[in-house]
Amino acid sequence: MIDAIFVALQLFLVVIGVYQFTFSLFGLVKKKKKKHFEPTKSFAVLVAAHNEEQVVGALMENLKQLNYPKDLYEVFVICDNCTDRTAAIVREHEMNACVRTNQNLRGKGYAIEWMLKELWAMPRQYDAVVMFDADNLAHPDFLIEMNDDLCSGARVIQGYIDTKNPEDSWITAAYGVSYWYINRLWQMSRHNLNMANFLGGTGMCFETNLLKEMGWGATSLVEDLEFTMRSVMRGVYPKFNYDAKVFDEKPLTFKASARQRLRWMQGHFTVARRYFFPLLWRAIKERSIVKLDLALYGINVYVALLTFILTAVIWVDNSFFDGPNIANLFGYLPFWLSFAAIAANVFTFMMALILEKVTFKKVYAYLVLFPIYLLSWYPITLYAFFTQNNKTWSHTEHTRVVRLEEVQSKQG
């Protein structure tokens, strides 16, 4: 019985791996450019900020320079429980500093929910709401791209999340590689197949009427994934805009990265527990591959946990108990298949770098350390499983002041 369970679990992991690899192949080709529309949509641009005095000024300058009619967008910075000069700097740039103080309901999800209520009470109403983080930089054509998608019928849109500091350390390089991979071989593949994309926490756009219908309601540690689940359950599929780029600052150190990823995994467990079975049931009932795909994405955190546990058990069995005493599916397969699986993973990451025309020399040099970053997800996920009820928001400090011109010159 134990052997049967182990083989079944290993087979499940193999199927998931093959499924995700197959889907990634649909992102190899980029679809032709979509139709353009005249700028007509109005935007409320929300910026979530908690003690971001070092970086918020650069974003304010950036948002002033967007290639979009100035009377069609307005910037609102949510100064959430700030104890520094964030609000003062925002006002110096003649932007709206919306101060929120609530020590009990802390975190980005609660801050957004509060800001939307404030926004709905204002005399002016906007066609859509765009959300950034304070450490971001937006491509000048970001709102033009959002306008095109909204005019084409999209109601929830995710932009391309790029990295503004990929050469700062081996950790920022690892983040960069991960996001180039995700944008091209996860997001683009689902975009090409007209499936639901998932939100990434920044560079997001929402139709105002949809937000008023649904309410925000996403207050977990991963509010982006939670809102994705809620919208797909309503039959509203988020779209991916490859050309709407937002540059995000990544943590410089492994310690800061581990803290951030721990928060993500803790929130991911909460969302998976809450939405997986309802979404799976709807996928079966409606015969919807879109909902099934998102349900599987939702339990990726459990897939990582299961992979780590099974690998550890098999290793302990072989190393300390004269194993194998537990059935190992891979023991029945040709030895070359293991190398083929590893080669397939290497292929996808390298292909993503090639397709995205990454030219950062340090990023390629840091690839030798990339496996450490990937393997570190497993103990982080294990620790997150046992601490998933910890709902405390941990703030990632941002200090890297970069202007858009610098980012674009390095990419060029």
Search tags:
412 residues, alpha/beta, eight-stranded mixed β-sheet, 8 strands, 53% helix, globular
Task: Give the helix/strand layout.
Blueprint (H helix, E strand, L loop, with lengths): L1 H23 L18 E7 L6 H9 L8 E8 L5 H7 L3 E5 L7 H13 L7 E6 L3 E2 L3 H10 L4 E8 L6 H23 L11 E4 H7 L8 H11 L5 E10 L5 H33 L2 H10 L1 H21 L15 H20 L5 H6 L3 H17 L17 H8 L1
Parallel strand pairs: 1-2, 1-4, 2-3, 6-8
Antiparallel strand pairs: 4-7, 5-8, 6-7
Helix pairs in contact: 1-11, 6-12, 8-9, 8-10, 9-10, 9-14, 11-14
Q: Biggest sheet: strands, sense, closure? A: 8 strands, mixed
Q: Tell me the total number of β-strands.
A: 8
N→C terminal distance: 58 Å
Element pattern in H and E? HEHEHEHEEHEHEHHEHHHHHHH
Number of helices: 15
| Portion in strands | 5-15%
Taking pLDDT < 50 over at least 5 consecutive residues as the criterion, the unreliable ranges are none
What does this structure look like?
The protein is of the alpha/beta class. 53% of the residues lie in helices and 12% in strands. An eight-stranded mixed beta sheet has the order 3-2-1-4-7-6-8-5, with helices on both faces. Strand 1, helix 2 (56-64) and strand 2 (73-80) form a beta-alpha-beta unit. Helix 8 (223-233) runs parallel beside helix 9 (254-286). The radius of gyration is 22 Å and the shape is globular. The mean pLDDT is 91.
